[in-house]
């Protein structure tokens, strides 16, 4: 019997008010139901926001170091449950066990970072321009945070948002992706077990159109932190304009790895295999373009195709599997349609390009790791985010041309350059338009204590991770204390003429 999951509102597990439910299935074996979940609506969001607003009035007064102690307990509980969380995540969304363990570990790192931030949350004291006056700027909580997350990092991404939100003294209404509601539920269970009081974290399951929209449109939600597609991000920003909410958007990518002729070829090959086919290519930072210098193009393509053809597809829980399934049928169909587009545009299919036919893969949303060569910068497979195991290879002649091709996209999340020439490396760091640049490492591999995010249509300028995310989840309050006993007018009394 599949487990029946519920929403968590004001410290209680409850069904959707409508009583409706939806199912979540294992993408590697679609006949396996993970659980049934409440198909919530605006009325459930209403209740969650009301309770989060009420809880804010007490939570905001809990000293930040105390909130940090709870975050440390959260990290400890995640360590204790790491293996079972990783297994659940693999069953729920398909990526291989080593990667889901990494996903949980990122949450653990984020918890311990948040815990230590409870004893910092630094403000500023600054001299006043007037005598006997004290100036400071301090961080204060904002209110109710709406948290809307995708399915590809079901633990890490919610923790990137929820932990700093709570540490700063905000309360949370959380809507996870409907492809990964079980992992999200486990996170809320852990927060509660660690001592987060009722009403401070609430989870409302359901679709983006119903639950997500209701959160973004709610006048009592003060800020929204969203990770997902650029299309939905734009809608959210428009909707949030009505109530002038603070919005953080982490959106799509079309990331490239560039290989110069002097690069270590083996290293570049390992990098692109991990970058393009890790998480079945379903990462915002996935390598979906490989830019090869003409001098090493043919050699590296040959090495690449041999290795791609030997990647093992399968259930991510099984030992030795390299690549899991796509998350669902619609994602598999999107991949297939981009393969057809690539062929029609004139690119050359050199690996994959099909749904596998092996009997043990017949009940999952698998797709063969795919490589196109002869891709031109204007091709759709060089420009649009596919979000699947498809790699487009392009050729360039000079560093400048390579960087120009790399920048020729509406996105700007991650980038990577393989070279042993330090001058070329620093030129690339300066000129690539992306939020993240790796040298001699693949486009994936963010660390929890570093700022994470992109430029152009990958986001709206905020950053997650490390110290930077605390700017989003707190408000600056500027304070002046005048202890002169008289009226002192800034800009006037100290400049008399
Ligand atoms: P998605 O945009 O379809 O959904 C993301 C979340 O938004 C889900 O919870 C969904 O239910 C919700 N949603 C959908 N429509 C909504 C609406 N109208 N109002 C409010 N919420 C709504 O994205 P996805 O398919 O879950 O994830 C894949 C996308 O996420 C890719 O584009 C990927 O690049 C991006 N992503 C970005 C980052 C990053 O940090 N930049 C990280 C991971 C994924």
CATH topology of the largest domain: Aldehyde Dehydrogenase, Chain A, domain 1
Helix/strand-derived category reads alpha/beta
What is the helix tally?
Answer: 15
Q: What form results from the Cα inertia axes?
A: globular
Indicate the proportion of strand residues: 15-25%
Classified in CATH, the superfamily of the largest domain is Aldehyde Dehydrogenase, Chain A, domain 1
Helix content: 25-40%
Strand order of the largest sheet: 15-16-17-14-13-18-19
Q: In the CATH hierarchy, what is the class of the largest domain?
A: Alpha Beta
Ligand species: nicotinamide-adenine-dinucleotide
Query: What is the CA-CA span between the terminal residues?
Result: 83 Å
How many structural domains can be distinguished in the coordinates? 2
Determine the mean pLDDT.
Answer: 97
Low-confidence stretches: none
Structural commentary:
The protein is α/β, with parallel strands linked by helices. Helices cover 37% and strands 21% of the residues. Nicotinamide-adenine-dinucleotide (NAD) binds at residues 148-153, 175, 177-178, 207-209, 212-213, 216, 227-229, 232, 235-236, 250-253, 284, 385, 387, 413, 454, 458.
């Amino acid at each position: 019997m599949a487990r029946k999951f519920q929403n968590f509102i004001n410290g209680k597990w409850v069904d959707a008010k409508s009583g409706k439910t939806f199912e979540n299935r294992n993408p590697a074996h679609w006949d396996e139901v993970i659980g049934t979940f409440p198909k919530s609506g605006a009325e459930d969001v209403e209740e969650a926001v009301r309770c989060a607003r009420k809880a804010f009035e007490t939570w905001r007064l809990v000293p930040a170091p105390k909130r940090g102690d709870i975050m440390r307990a959260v990290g400890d509980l995640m360590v204790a449950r790491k293996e079972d969380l990783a297994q659940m995540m693999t069953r729920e969304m398909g990526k291989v066990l080593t990667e889901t363990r990494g996903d949980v570990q990122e949450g653990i790192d984020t918890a311990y970072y948040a815990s230590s931030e409870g004893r910092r949350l630094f403000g500023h004291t600054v001299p006043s321009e007037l005598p006997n006056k004290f100036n400071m700027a301090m961080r204060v909580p904002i209110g109710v945070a709406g948290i809307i997350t995708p399915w590809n990092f079901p633990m890490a991404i919610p923790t990137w948002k929820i932990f700093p939100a709570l540490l700063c003294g905000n309360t949370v209404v959380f809507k996870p992706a409907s492809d990964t509601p079980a992992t999200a539920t486990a996170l809320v269970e852990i927060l509660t077990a660690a001592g987060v009081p009722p009403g401070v974290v609430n989870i409302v399951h359901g679709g983006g159109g119903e639950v997500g929209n209701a959160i973004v449109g709610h006048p009592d939600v003060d800020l929204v932190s969203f990770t997902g597609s650029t299309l939905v991000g734009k809608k959210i920003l428009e909707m949030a304009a009505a109530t002038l909410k603070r919005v953080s958007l982490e959106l799509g990518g079309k990331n490239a790895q560039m290989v110069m002729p002097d690069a270590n070829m083996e290293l570049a090959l390992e990098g692109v295999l991990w970058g393009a086919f890790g998480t079945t290519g379903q990462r915002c930072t996935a390598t979906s373009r490989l830019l090869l210098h003409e001098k090493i193009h043919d050699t590296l393509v040959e090495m690449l195709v041999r290795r791609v053809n030997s990647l093992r597809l399968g259930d991510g829980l099984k030992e030795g599997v390299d690549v899991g399934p796509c998350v669902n049928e619609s994602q598999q169909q999107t991949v297939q349609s981009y393969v057809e587009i690539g062929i029609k545009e004139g690119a050359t299919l050199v690996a994959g390009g099909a749904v596998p036919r092996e009997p043990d893969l017949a009940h999952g949303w698998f797709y063969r790791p795919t490589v196109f060569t002869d891709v031109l910068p204007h091709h759709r497979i060089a420009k649009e985010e596919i979000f699947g195991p498809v790699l487009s290879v392009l050729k360039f002649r000079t560093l400048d041309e390579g960087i120009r091709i790399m920048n020729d996209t509406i996105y700007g999340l991650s980038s990577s350059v393989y070279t042993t020439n330090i001058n070329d490396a620093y030129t690339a760091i300066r000129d690539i338009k992306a939020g993240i640049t790796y040298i001699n490492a693949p486009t994936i591999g963010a660390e929890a204590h570093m700022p994470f995010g992109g430029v152009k249509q990958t986001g709206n300028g905020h950053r997650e991770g490390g110290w930077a995310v605390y700017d989003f989840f707190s408000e600056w309050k500027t304070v002046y204390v005048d202890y002169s006993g008289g009226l002192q007018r800034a800009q006037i009394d100290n400049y008399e003429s």
